[in-house]
């Protein structure tokens, strides 16, 4: 190699090492920090609760569920705004799902991404349990999850 190119070669080697180190550190820390960006923090006094029906109530097979929320606001899914979220109604879900990732959308986990604060339900006769979980703009519960007390009802 000509003597005049040696410094350039050294510089190139250093640059390659730097790039490798950068890619390596991104592969370690990049993904988790991106995932963490999807989490939102709720105000400490935030509370969600089922206004209606009340715990222990007997209802007809078609009934209305009203969602309550204090200490923060309701915003539609996709709208990233501090101290907001949208409701998810868990029907007969005995164990809370993973609260650090987007909530699934199933017959038992209903999303109200339009910002709805009530819904009409039709359930089979018998005992059912309802519970609310607030999710952020990307359907992920807040890092201090806002979860209601469960309400147990009997459908006639
Ligand atoms: Cu959702």
Secondary structure layout plus pairing:
Elements: H1 6-36, E1 47-52, E2 58-59, E3 62-70, E4 73-74, E5 84-91, E6 109-111, E7 118-122, E8 126-135, E9 151-155
Parallel strand pairs: 2-9, 4-5
Antiparallel strand pairs: 1-3, 3-7, 5-6, 5-8, 8-9
Bound molecules: copper (II) ion.
Describe the structure.
It is a single chain. The protein is α+β, with helices and mostly antiparallel strands. It has two domains: 34 residues; 109 residues, Immunoglobulin-like. Helix content is 20%, strand content 32%. Strands 2, 4, 5, 6, 8 and 9 form a six-stranded mixed sheet that branches. Strands 1-3-7 form a three-stranded antiparallel sheet, with no helix packed on it. The protein starts with 5 loop residues before the first helix and ends with a strand. About 15% of the residues have low confidence. Copper (II) ion (CU) binds next to strand 5.
